# Entry
Amino acid sequence: MADRGCPLEAVPLPAEVRESLAELELELSEGDITQKGYEKKRAKLLARYIPLLQGADPSLQAENRVPAPTQTTAAVSKQRKPRPPSSRDERFRSDVHTEAVQAALARYKERKVPMPSRRRSALTHSSVDTSTPPDTSSASEDEGSFRRPTRLTSTPLQSHSNTEPWLDRVVQGSSASSSASSTSSHPGGRPAATLAGPTAHAHVDVHSAPPDVTTGLMELSHRERPQLASVRGVARGCSGSVLETAGGVPVSSRVSSKIQQLLNTLKRPKRPPLKEFFVDDLEELLEVQQPDPNQPKPEGSQMVLLKGEPLAVGVPWPPSLLAVLQRWGTTQPKAPCLTALDAAGKAVYTLTYGKLWSRSLKLAYTLLNKLTSKNEPLLKPGDRVALVFPNSDPVMFMVAFYGCLLAELVPVPIEVPLTRKDAGSQQVGFLLGSCGVTLALTTDACQKGLPKAQTGEVATFRGWPPLSWLVIDGKHLTKPPKDWQPQAQDARAGTAYIEYKTSKEGSTVGVTVTHACLLAHCQALTQACGYSEAETLTNVLDFKRDAGLWHGVLTSVLNRMHVVSVPYALMKVNPLSWIQKVCSYKARAALVKSRDMHWSLLAQRGQRDVSLSSLRMLIVADGANPWSISSCDAFLNVFQSRGLRPEVICPCAGSPEALTVAIRRPPELGGPPPRRAVLSMNGLSFGVIRVDAEEKLSVLTVQDVGQALPGADVCVVKVEGAPHLCKTDEIGEICVSSSATGTAYYGLLGITKSVFETIPVTAGGTPVSDRPFTRTGLLGFIGPDNLVFVVGKLDGLMVVGIRRHNADDIVATALAVEPMKFVYRGRIAVFSVTVLHDDRIVLVAEQRPDASEEDSFQWMSRVLQAVDSIHQVGVYCLALVPANTLPKAPLGGIHISETKQRFLEGLLHPCNVLMCPHTCVTNLPKPRQKQPEVGPASMIVGNLVAGKRIAQASGRELAHVEDSDQARKFLFLPDVLQWRAHTTPDHPLFLLLNAKGTVTSTATCVQLHKRAERVAAALMEKARLSTGDHVALVYPPGVDLIAAFYGCLYCGCVPVTVRPPHPQNLATTLPTVKMIVEVSKSACVLTTQAIMRLLKSKDAAAAVDVRTWPTILDTADDIPKKKVTSIFRPPSPDVLAYLDFSVSTTGILAGVKMSHAATSALCRSIKLQCELYPSRQIAICLDPYCGLGFALWCLCSVYSGHQSVLVPPLELESNVSLWLSAVSQYKARVTFCSYSVMEMCTKGLGAQTGVLRTKGVNLSCVRTCMVVAEERPRIALTQSFSKLFKDLGLPSRAVSTTFGCRVNVAICLQSPCGLLVKSRQMHASFLSDSAHSRCYGRTTKAPWKPNVRAKLFSKECASPSVAHGGGAVSGLKEDPCSNQGRQGSRCPGAPRWHGEQRPSNSVLLIY
# Structure
């Protein structure tokens, strides 16, 4: 080792020690010694020399800073031959070290690329040192052994163009300094020792973390990698403050970096984390748009909580709104309350406060005392009642609303359904069903206009629960007694009313508002708007919801105001009607939308006699929309000359959850002057506020919506993640904490907590208040003077890439492109669809009828250019549809969610389409890359080689049946039935229900036994059958089928159950019956009289040859009254018991032979798994003709002794709630059904859960609801069923699935779990979960059904699959439960794959 440079050469080693070290290295390289043994022997050899090294004088080391050139010359001249590939690459050789460093520096100088990066294990992820430049690694000794807290203070080579500070550490720390470094690696012969100088004097922290021995390996290209030598000589753990290399260059480190590399080489590799074993080499590598480093970021300080002005103190607020109504109704009965206008603009009726009070009392009395059902009141306090009134009848709506409040009922205002297929009608029906609404209030005229059924009654709308309709016109109400008074006179915590809201996805939810919140909101609006008694308010908005309800129906009563309601139909005919009413009634306030102001501008020409000087507040309800400011400005410019003052315009913002969020005050009420902001659209897309020049195109000008409501606290939180407070220049969601907000989504506790119980926190995680906040769904910020600015809504938010865009902004941009010339009435819808895991913008517009195709594409091209230049985003699809074809909202707007649904389903039928995917789909998949290093497949194979488990599972073992065991004595089902008939003759086994839920047939143990004896006698005497003959049983689902089955077993015949033909479809179903009878070689057919006539009818003769039927017996008339002489007992358990025939979905007929032993083992395992005992009742809603359905219907009750409540699935077509009612009535803990039954209940009863609850249906008794099928679990259906009937008490984990195939009908039972699996990986038989997975039901849980063992086999090679792969399932049963006792039977049938291609190399998957 004399030629090797290492830190120990300052202390010469004896020759024998050097030889011993060389031998150790040779043994280690050839594998003759382990690493641990090598370290021990090496440490023993060097132990005596370590103190000499540690005691070296640092001052002497500093003097030898320039190494002697002789050692270097000798080292360079000796070139080692390349080692064989089997040698250890991690070990470095010092004889070529100098040449390696020089070559590396030369490459860096010439190519201007970073030094080669460290070699990192494919199985570990180590952190990169902060002092290492990007994508580089210095491989220096001191860099790996300590951390530098500061950068170098001085570097003489700063003038050198290609030298960086980290390069100093590379050269200083490399072992090149151990040799003659006078050989220059840079042009000009600059010595490397000079490079090392400044670094040696750099300040380092010697008290930093211990050396990292898992990183620091240098990786060079295979073609240019020199063979570097590892330094041996210091034992593991040896350290020193200053070490000296052979060349005299000191290395300031605790541990020599050569020793660190040595330890890193010899260290046993760590076991990688578990997730590393499942790295997906089939990962769908989509381009992920990286954040732009130059994108604007919020720079302001954290916002503080904005507190609204307090509610007025000392004002005598009334105890409730109803108390106010009673006061005005009795003290000011002739004061006008509401004036209704007809379509011509004439006042048709003025409702006074006296009439409102008296009519509301009559309605409340009628609702509570005159509506009965089965001699019981139909309604009780707290029940929900639907209010169905047109927008042209505010008077009757107001009477109905206050009548419900006086009766302590909860009104649910909804829109009038015009047709059975109105847009969003099904979601409204779901809301009514979830609220338990059974009664709807309406007027006589409205009821006559509703769609009617053939019986003349109001038709049942799609998705609506059954409703009773009550007309509340005067002649239908009963006058209450004089001494009758309503009980509700104070503000309570109970629900006052429910206001519906439609979400972005189209779902409809109900926001509950309590009596206390209702009163607080009216008080806050009164103070904010300065309402006073006897003021007149002109209302153009919908009086059933939002600001129209809050101001025009509720707050107006609190202040005894007079409201003039302008219907929507009048606005379409005369847009100036509301201005005319303001002028004629001298209205002090008006409630409009920017749409109404825009229409008025278009129709104002020629109107010279109008004056708006009486207005003190013009409330713009949609002041948050981006186009409202232009409408307000244009309206002011035109009507300022007619008495309209600028300070009168008062925009406001609100949401169904938070009610009114903010409203601008007039100056006389102390409000600050209005403000507007010109914001950069680019900044808004990144969620930050950047003020821009107004003359630019890509800006958004917004106006303030005023100050927060009195008594409210307002803050802005981040849209995504935890509700952290935003910065002052950051866009977020506005949250409100007040006593005047909604309280919950009715019946939806999960989303209620996330919306109505938000706790905003600071950056440090401290809550800003001890009161919960309500999310408003409005995006905005707090501006100067504590004014609230709204820039959009969450429902219209579209996240394209990493940027946010608002649908209203896109609509405003499209409307700016010649809207009057092309777009029909400005009807434009903008929404987003998901393409490649990202939102894509879709714009749909109605074109004018006279627009040509050339005009269409010219307009679309201009819209694309405008959106791209202003919003910097591409439009995925721009579609034009004919006029009046888009689905409409109740007030004539576009129903966005329904439009989106039609677009996705291909039902939009556009006349012109312009697709531009190339401008917006920028995250196309990357090319596939080969997995580096060791891939997951190698790891799995390694696990298999190492003895890890393969993909197998097993159920618990059944005890071996001994001859003395009672189970052996009653091994055969006929023996079990005889034993039960003798010991428990009156114990009920079967109970059959009809469509009405009444019991049509029962069977006790002795009754079934006697009926089976009579069937056996008929087969032996009339049919003259012998033992082993096959008998076809063609029965509808019922007890007759069960009796005929056991009758066949009693006489030794083999029954074959066959589904009877359908009377209306004989041509299709009868040939299947005939085929099963012929293939099974049945000698006789047992059936009922009706089916026997059908089999021999003329219609049957047209489908099959009726002359070839075997003997047909009617078990109702042809059965004798005597018993069979002797009951057949099989001589062997392997004797055939029955044949199980079924037709696959592809039309293939398959039959399975079931022996007596297999039948008994099947029943026994089901009994143990489902815990079936004689005292148990189970409900079965399955077809009893094959598979597990037949076993549960006919076999298990006899074997286990439990009572089976039989519900034929065909009866559910007449009564869809029959099955669930039976489960509730008989309190069945276990129930079985099929997917068709579950789907029928989900679709048919989705909106009737409230009705079922009123009928007493309670599913809390259900412990397990199992779906029987031979297909992949339909996890979406089972989850929907669980969520839907959770309100009826169904436990969330009760619904599970069974798994089986044609050969093994019940491989496993009971498991409600699920698993996320990537569909593409399933196609390749490899499973892993990720963010883009779909959910598959899991049908297994340990233990499986007793006595079952299953393995996954590869389809191609028939070898066991590893634990995380896919393959064919093989079911093994010790007792011959299937396929005539043949063990290890392969599942022959493949499942039906819903929506996905079946995996190419697997038959069936179990998860």
In short: Residues 853-871 form the longest helix (19 residues). The radius of gyration is 42 Å.
